[in-house]
Write a structure and sequence with these properties.
Low-confidence stretches: none
Number of strands: 3
Mean pLDDT: 91
Helix content: 55-70%
Structural class: mainly alpha
Largest sheet: 3 strands, antiparallel
Order of helices and strands: HHEHHEEHH
């Protein structure tokens, strides 16, 4: 018979807790500021830009919905509704995937490419103002490397 010792889950140190809180606050603050800049310019939310960017980077400007989901931070149920709105706005179109009649391609349109460019003209200076003006390139590189450590699987 073996003794079963209950292992206590380790608790984060005060430094780790402080880093977590500051990371979440910084993310929320900067994201809200950029979203506000887009709204003031009467442009769609940042999620639209992310989808348009990934489609513009893809071969032939087309991806399957699950590929968009993998490349963005959008959950499948949110992505479906977003794609419906983007299709209705003429920024993307859907086409049947010939190898599987149930599947669809999402294809960026010329209007979608133009919208991506319009959004970038607001997004780029907002990103610079809310992040780039506060960190020099060495600090930005250091932050990027630290964040990579958080995304690596253990």
């Amino acid at each position: 018979m073996t003794d079963s010792v209950a292992t206590k889950s380790p608790t984060p140190s005060p430094a780790v807790t402080r880093a977590w809180i500051r990371l979440m606050r910084a993310q929320q603050t900067i994201l809200a500021a950029i979203e506000q800049n887009l709204k003031v310019a009467e442009l769609p939310p940042l999620g639209w830009y992310d989808v348009l960017l990934e489609l513009s980077r893809a071969k032939d400007g087309r991806l399957r919905p699950y590929e968009i989901e993998q490349r963005t931070l959008l959950a499948q149920h949110n992505l479906s509704r977003l794609l419906d709105r983007m299709d209705k706005a003429g920024l993307v179109q859907r086409e049947v995937f010939t190898e599987d009649g149930r599947g669809r391609w999402v294809i960026i349109t010329d209007a979608g490419r133009a919208m991506q460019a319009r959004m970038w003209s607001v997004y780029a200076p907002a990103l610079q103002r809310h992040l780039g003006d506060k960190l020099d390139d060495a600090q930005a590189d250091q932050l990027a490397e630290l964040l990579v450590a958080l995304t690596q699987k253990s």
